[in-house]
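Running log. JK asked me to keep both predictions on one page so they can be read side by side. First protein, sequence followed by its tokens:
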Amino acid sequence: MWRIRDWFTNAFLAIRLWFYVTFNPKRFKGVDNPKEKKGWDMTFNDEFDQGKLDRKKWKTDTYFGLRFHPNNIVDKGVAPDMYYGDNMFEFDGSVMKQKATNEPKKIKYVDWDGKDWGWFTIPYRVGQIDSSKSFNQKYGYWEIKSKITPEPGSWPAFWMVSTEEYPPEADVYEIYTGKKWGMKTFASNFHWRDNPDNENDPKLMNPVSHRVLDVSKDFHTYAWEWQPNKMKIYYDNMLVRVCTNPKVIAQFRTPMHVIINNGVYPEQGAAGANYPTYHEVDYVRVYKKK
């Protein structure tokens, strides 16, 4: 029953979004939400107005302690695409600008079992912030206001994950700027496992692509509402997706923290971009139901 309901709901939401983007684009201009949200208490936020990164809130490596993802090394014997640098940030007023550059970084990888995989040269450096040192939460409303670079091959994201188990993962947006509709779409995604108690079970995803305005022209808000029996995605305060799949919902059972990153996707023309590229963030805010 949920499959039919979710399908019709999301089809209606996609048509409604297309209608407003096509015929009433002013609806999505200059969205600037107040900090106070009716029915909710703010539990975490950063307005990025200090002129520097608040390192009491954020770490700049991954929640698992590395500055790169080792999968390419372990699975393919090749270097990762991205290195999460500690100084990949600029500030312009109350906006944090996460950089991506094509400066290579040489690293040596020794895994958790002590195996030495040798030296690798990572071709791109990017900025990422992670709240796992200071904040996580179960259920709530997670909102960001951001602007994306128009350069090809970028892969910025706003996502949540748990330090206690993986999956789940909630991607409020992933944006691939080199695709045909790259500047006018964002993808929301929920990662889950068909059998959550079997680590060898293949990881699954529920991606949905949302057709919107050019995300490089203006700042837009994106949000994820996480309830015990339902998850919702919003774009500029408009509901664009609902998920009630009980198998997916059941795996969102541990507190999750915030990750915001710039990124590089080489297969989508990253080599032709003008660096540095920027993922600009005005604010991030998290709320809990009163």
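And the second, directly underneath as requested:
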Amino acid sequence: MFITKRHIPRRTFLQGMGVSVALPFLESMLPAQTPLTKAAASSAKPRFVGIWAPHGWAPTYWSGTMPGSETSKSGGDFKLGSIHTPLEPFKEQVTVIGGLDATSSMPPPGSSGGDHSRGAAFLTGAPPKKTAGADIFIGTSIDQLIAQKIGQETLLPSIQLGIEDPGSNTGICGWGYSCAYSNSVSWSAPNKPLPHEINPLVVFERLFGDGSTPEERVARKETKSSILDSLTHKVARLQKNLPASDRTRLNDYLEDIRELERRLQIAAKASSEAPSLDVPFGIPESFDEHVKLMYDLQALAFQGDITRVSALMIARDVSLRAYPESGVTTVYHSASHHGEDPKRREEYHRINRYHQQTFAYFLEKLKSTPDGDGSLLDHTLILWGSNMGNANQHSHVNVGHLIAGGKRIGVKGSRYVAAFGQPTSNLLLGIVHKFDVQNASIGDSTGAVDL
């Protein structure tokens, strides 16, 4: 089958009153006489997501994801551990990496402390310079290396998201280390951390170009109208010239935007009506709703090709947040220091599993969204990781990481990779190579983990 006419440029935006909505990929954007099978494969673009979760995973609840003991060799015949059971529907696109060593990003010989002051090592693979001044230095994070390679054609080369407010953390965050190292996992240069936006309403307006005046935004929010309302006539006019498949895809995309906007309005209303809860305007009180909004925003940004790279901080190190949805009321950091008490260790395991449950929501969203010759999940490589192995002991050995998606990028999936003794930077190097970033090394890497 061939497309007989190209009448929509790929970088088309629907623009209204201060609004600019990028279109998802449509068949009508293909050049004339292009076979659909070939065009679908070439139209999809690779994406990358880095998800940071402090404190690691509860030992023994995830490291049994391969046959035998922790020293088992890599292989595909593995069973997901109980922490990762929510990911069972996506097992074919999940790779668990065990044995990685993050001690290289920890204090140099002769010094100590600051274990919770080095989150930035997650995507840089490098030790931070011990300083509380302006002379911070660590390394460029791989999300920014990837954005330099694949993000220059998009409206936003990358986006940085977070869930917890860093508050007044602008000075020293422990043992003489600048708070910059724990406030951001995304660094555009060794001395330039990028801020993470925690307000989904702000992210939404950034993605969809709400450049209207403050008065117009307030008026629209008061009437509960949508940013799409000013585009109604343009959408109708565009759809007249689209084939049925493109009309369906465009309708689904716009409905996703409208539904997300509705949820954001509910969150904004709830936060404005409960000032005593100290919840900033637009930020849901519920972690569950907050993180799902952030996942949906990333999916929409990828679908509209607004960006192809994102980084998300699920929590802050030494997090004092509780997750009652997990069935545990102990705060995150305290739960990680379980003292090897079986009951408390089980509680921490339940928090870990709950995080994977919300992550599964994101994977399902990507899997159900068509993209080129597959789905968004097929074309998105997602890294979930930490800088802690056994957080109870502040151990940085056998730090668990997880890769999801990336089938069309060449990630094998459905397997366990034993990387005992290898620095975490070896994994980062293996990832950037999947995006044709030809760095010889990342941080203290000694080679590349085969993905």
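Observation for JK regarding the second prediction: The chain has two domains: 1-43+208-282, 47-198+284-296+307-451.
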